[in-house]
Amino acid sequence: MRIDLGVGETVGGSEHVTVGVALQEEVTAISRPFDEELLTPGQVAALFCVDPKTVSRWAKAGKIGFVTTLGGHRRYRSTEVHALLRSLDDSCPS
């Protein structure tokens, strides 16, 4: 069986795997625990009462961690988002 993950070098053995150079984020997304809930930018924005673009700016600035999906979209770990929400105590008024 041959799995082609992009441009890179082929690893030997009975199964050949081509490992790409620029696949770190995709591999991270694949290898994360499956029971971990991920939130969309819109869901995170709703929790903080901000625009989804603000959430993207926070991610670019390193204020909140994210996982990149294979399609290139950002997803945010629920546990990290809720911890940040508790630390700021700035949730939307109910």
Keywords for this structure?
94 residues; 3-stranded mixed sheet; disordered N terminus
Describe this structure in words.
This protein has 4 helices and 6 strands. The chain has 94 residues and is α+β, with helices and mostly antiparallel strands. It has a domain at 44-91. The strands form 2 sheets. A 3-stranded mixed beta sheet has the order 1-3-2, with no helix packed on it. The protein is globular, with a radius of gyration of 17 Å. The model is unreliable at 1-23 (pLDDT under 50).
Structural class: alpha+beta
* Count of helical stretches: 4
Instruction: Report, as a whole number of angstroms, the end-to-end distance.
Output: 54 Å
Indicate the proportion of strand residues.
15-25%
Shape: globular
Based on CA atoms alone, the radius of gyration comes out at: 17 Å
Reading side by side through the largest sheet, how are the strands ordered?
Answer: 1-3-2
The average pLDDT is 75
Which parts are unreliable, with pLDDT below 50 for 5 consecutive residues or more?
1-23
Q: Strand tally, please?
A: 6
Taking the sheet with the most strands, its summary is:
3 strands, mixed
User: Approximately how much helix is present in the residues?
Assistant: 25-40%
Order of helices and strands: EEEHEHHEEH
